[in-house]
Amino acid sequence: MDSIETLTKSSLIEMRAMAKPHPLIEKTMQIVCALKGFKQLNWNTAKDFLGRGSFKTDLLQLTCKNVRPQDVLSA
User: Fold this and answer.
1) I need a labelling partner for 74 at 20 to 30 A (CA). Which of 4, 34, 43, 45 fits?
2) Which residues, including other chains, have CB under 8 Å from residue 21's CB and lie 6 or more apart?
3) Which domain holds residue 22?
4) How far apart are CA 43 and CA 21, in angstroms?
């Protein structure tokens, strides 16, 4: 929770502007997208998600109890 709170708008913009992010950033965002139920687990989907005004709120509301292992493993 603390990590999400420290995300700034400029850091989200910086990540979104990356054409080829570090593999760990890309994999982390693929997992986040899987947890949020996205079907396309690629960098373009992640960038769209990062651009949402509700990005931080969406992350804070994420309930891991409902996560299916196959959703995370597919990322």
Assistant:
1) 4
2) 15, 29, 43
3) 2-73
4) 8
C-beta of residue 45 within 8 angstroms of C-beta of residue 38: yes
How far, in Å, CA of 34 to CA of 11, rounded? 21
Report which of 23, 34, 33, 28 is spatially closest to residue 72, judged by C-alpha positions: 34
Tell me, yes or no, if the pTM score tops 0.85.
Answer: no
Instruction: Indicate the helix (H) or strand (E) that contains 48.
Output: helix 43-50
* Distance from C-alpha of 31 to C-alpha of 9, rounded to nearest angstrom: 21
User: Do residues 25 and 32 touch, judged by C-beta distance below 8 A?
Assistant: no
pLDDT of residue 5: 85
* Number of domains the chain contains: 1
